[in-house]
TrEMBL record:
GO cellular component, as recorded: trans-Golgi network
Pfam families recorded: TRAPPC9-Trs120 (PF08626)
Protein name: Trs120/TRAPPC9 N-terminal domain-containing protein
InterPro entries linked: Trs120_TRAPPC9 (IPR013935), Trs120_TRAPPC9_N (IPR058563)
Domain Trs120/TRAPPC9 N-terminal positions: 10-349
Native organism taxonomy: Eukaryota, Sar, Stramenopiles, Oomycota, Peronosporomycetes
Organism for this UniProt entry: Phytophthora fragariae
Length: 588
């Protein structure tokens, strides 16, 4: 981390989610190398893609799609070989729905009986659980084409074979990377055309009937997403709350389809017919579905870099969803969809504002955070808080670089933005006990990066230390009762993940020590070594003479770990770094 490095851009809503699946017992290191190669081709400018022949722009659901403009199709590749943590309600956002699966096969490592065809069948079986895919292909790397027979590859429509790797002198490319560039360009165009076709199909059938269950359009525009707590309450309460009058609701829900418990619709005078029709549960459900679908159309517009189209969809969706949320009395499902629509609208404002402060952006983002809290989706709330924090960090740094503002005004505006940053981070820390363990570590690391960007180095060290402590705690041989309240049983890692966690913890502790001005090798011979144990340090402190005053005591006694105190017995380097850090730099 470096304060001179620009803050990362908020791009997740504009990335298609694609899983990478290892096929055919590919070695982990080989799979990781191909995953890194694919990451190099994750951003594909629209101007570099070949527009399909016969493409009719007037038929496209994306009115502002410009093949010669500055738009980019982005893919977020996630390895299915690692544990993929899902968060409650994430399918409310199109960018978090899996729209592609790429199998990665290393032909020389194939051990399956049947060779490439058996690997292909294994891949096809793995993608059946993802019905709404815009693309799925099996990449067979290092394949010897002279050994491939017509019978072996016959009928394997989703197989893409890559040549043996050879470096191309003077280009910095290889035969594999060039082939992959062509393949990814083709897949991106095919995915875009499939998305357009699905949306046209759904739009054409919207006025007539619901799309057939199981087809691509129905999966991509599925609006039946509710928070888990809402799903558990479905049997106890109706999701269609028509008013806040308990008696009226009770009369309605007692027999929603019976004509004997109330006046017949045909006996109502015509001036009131429209109003009663609006209260019909079928109409309410229909309006809810249309509002949520409008929100998803905004999401897909963002994914294809049509920000102006997305703004139009989001504004319509927010207005409709706000009405649904009001009518339902703040039902978690309606609150979730309204929050997601507001977040999409905020992302569009962010794309246009860049590093300039926008009052509307902050207001809409704050409303979305509150609605996520009402829906009980703490992971989505935490992610939005993180993105809002990065926005504040970028605004603070851009303010200091602005030449049109005087020096004093720059400092005051930057300090004000930093205060907003710290306020939103405090809101994120309030959610900490409810987050999943991996998300806890991620949030602490991202928080430290934000604070590094604005120059708060001592706070950076604190959060790096806390992240390392959590990694060490979930890999400890024994976890005490206090820590069990923080960590779930599934968070205790084993095997290769344990090794990665420990390596990451050591790196984070070293980074924290650097932020406190502590070198890896202390020049003092009597200084405690890096590997000294906590118990040994405690015995040293017991033998030390009593301090003359409270100030000395503060310097000699390290501060307690505020988020995971039980991890102190596990963390070795951290306690040394913390003790020496406060001795060297004093207390604040």
């Amino acid at each position: 981390m470096s304060s001179s490095a620009p803050p990362p851009r908020w791009t997740r809503p504009a990335q298609f989610l694609v899983y990478l699946v290892p096929v055919g017992d590919i070695p982990p290191d080989v799979f990781a190398s191909y995953a890194r190669l694919l990451q190099r081709h994750s951003d594909l400018p629209l101007r570099s893609l070949t527009r399909p022949g016969g493409y009719a722009a007037e038929l496209s659901p994306f009115r502002s799609l410009d093949w010669a403009g500055g738009g980019v199709l982005r893919f977020r590749f996630v390895s299915a070989a690692e544990r993929v943590d899902a968060c409650d309600g994430e399918d409310v956002q199109a960018s978090r729905r899996v729209v592609g699966v790429l199998g990665v096969c290393h032909s020389p490592s194939l051990t399956l009986h049947g060779g490439l065809r058996a690997a292909y069948e294994q891949f096809e079986a793995s993608v059946r659980r993802f019905p709404g895919l815009l693309l799925h292909k099996l990449f067979a790397f290092e394949h010897a084409f002279e050994d491939a027979t017509a019978a072996e590859c016959e009928g394997l429509a989703d197989l893409v074979m890559f040549p043996v790797h050879h470096e191309l002198q003077g280009t910095g490319e290889s035969t594999v990377s060039l082939h992959l560039q062509v393949v990814m360009d083709t897949l991106a165009v095919n995915a875009l055309m499939a998305l357009e076709s699905a949306i046209r199909s759904a739009t054409a059938s919207a006025a007539a009937s619901t799309p057939r269950v199981g087809d691509l359009a129905s999966v991509l525009l599925d609006v039946n997403v509710e928070p888990q707590q809402q799903q558990t309450q479905q049997s106890a309460s109706s999701p269609l709350v028509l008013s806040r009058d308990v008696k009226a609701d009770a009369a309605f829900t007692a027999s929603p389809t019976s004509r004997a418990t109330g006046p017949s619709l045909t006996s109502i005078p015509s001036p009131l017919a429209a109003g009663v029709a609006a209260l019909d549960p079928r109409n309410r459900r229909r309006k809810r579905q249309l509002a949520r679908r409008e929100k998803l159309l905004g999401d897909y517009s963002v994914l294809v870099s049509c920000i102006s189209d997305a703004l139009d969809h989001y504004m319509v969706a927010v207005e409709m969803l706000r009405e649904e949320e009001r009518r339902s009395g703040g039902a978690p499902g309606d609150a979730l969809w309204l929050a997601a629509a507001l977040e999409g609208y905020v992302f569009c404002l962010y794309s246009e504002a860049q590093d300039k402060f926008s009052t509307e952006l902050v207001e809409k983002a704050s409303e979305a955070v509150a609605l996520y809290a009402k829906a009980g989706t703490v992971e989505l709330e935490s992610l939005l808080i993180e993105n809002l924090g990065w926005y504040y960090a970028a605004v603070a740094m851009a303010t200091l670089r602005r030449a049109s503002t005087s020096g004093e005004a720059k400092v005051l505006e930057s300090l004000w933005t930093k205060r907003l940053l710290w306020d939103v981070l405090e809101r994120g820390l309030m959610l900490f006990p409810e987050l999943q363990p991996q998300r806890q570590v991620e949030f602490l690391i991202q928080t430290s990066r934000m604070l590094e960007t604005v120059g708060h180095r001592r706070r950076v060290a604190l959060f790096l230390h806390e992240a390392a402590s959590l990694l060490l705690a979930r890999n400890a041989p024994s976890v005490d009762s206090q820590l069990r309240l923080l960590l779930s049983p599934s968070s205790v890692t084993k095997g290769s993940q344990r090794q990665r966690d420990l390596e990451a913890a050591l790196l984070l502790e070293r980074m924290a020590a650097e932020r406190l001005g502590i070198q890896g090798k202390n020049a003092r011979r009597d200084a405690l070594p890096w590997e000294v144990t906590t118990q040994y340090r405690r015995s040293r402190r017991k033998k030390a003479p009593a301090p003359d005053n409270c100030e000395d005591a503060r310097r000699r006694v390290p501060r307690r770990n505020v988020l995971s105190s039980a991890a102190g017995d596990v963390s070795m380097a951290a306690q040394v770094a913390w003790t020496n850090g406060y001795q060297l730099h004093g207390c604040k």
